[in-house]
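Message: A physicist's question: would you kindly supply an amino acid chain plus fold tokens?
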Amino acid sequence: MTLNVAAEQFGKVAVLLGGRSAERPVSLKSGQAVYNALISEGVDAHLFDPAEQPLQQLKEQGFDRAFIALHGRGGEDGVMQGALEWLGMPYTGSRVLGSALAMDKIRTKQIWQSMNLPTAGYHIISESLDEADAADILSALSGAVIVKPACEGSSIGMAKATTAAQLSEAVSEALKFDPQVLVERWIEGEEFTIAIVGDEVLPVVRMQTPHEFYDYEAKYQSKTTQYFCPCGLSEQDEKALQVYAKEAFKAVGAEGWGRVDAMRDDHGQWHLLEVNTVPGMTEKSLVPMAAKAKGIGFSELVLRILAAAKI
């Protein structure tokens, strides 16, 4: 084992995966990878899908702690965290408040703005737009926007819009996923992600895709997406981005482990995008990639996250 912790000290571990969110397919892959790593290290780990088993069985079946590999609603938004606290079950990652805030892109941006952290201009929409209102929003946000459901992950429901008709349609689609929609100024530039494990900020990863943006297909299906770690930034710029990321992570009350996404526009300005408190742990995932660049193997990464589990 790579940590100074005997596998037996973790007790019986439930790897929570699947769930009922739109991100269920990715969660199943993340959870399986985490489970395989724990088993390889001799941990008494078991797969547990809350969509198929009542949570009370965690106590009835004698589990000692939970590794949350659930993505999206019900797993990453504070709901599961609150349920586990009620059960008295130590769990990985952010607590209830940090999970809930980070899941909400709108409130995350509002907190960042209040702390003078850099993030793109935006509008909040809660109903369908006619083309006249859409045109006004486009004009206010420099003519191009990205539309995002407020509380979905994995780029689900996201779309770019450069015309009033496109924006109106994109908002209608996004409202199918969430009652509030974030319409954010489109940023031309490079996209980066910064993983945080405990108090350690890992090397920055740069993503490059021929898609218009780093969407669901680019993340999980495309073979043309490229990842760079080292990311190509100067040492000074990478350190500056890591500082922003750590501040952004703490600002929403996130802890344990997670990932902050950001972009740098064509003028060299940073823009924080969002915080992921339960990032993917698949073969294409970014936190394991950043950890590897730091000399931390996948199994050690999983053990570090599990060792920090608490109520």
Remarks:
- The domain at 122-185 is CATH 3.30.1490.20 (Dna Ligase; domain 1).
- The chain has a mean pLDDT of 93.
- The radius of gyration is 19 Å.
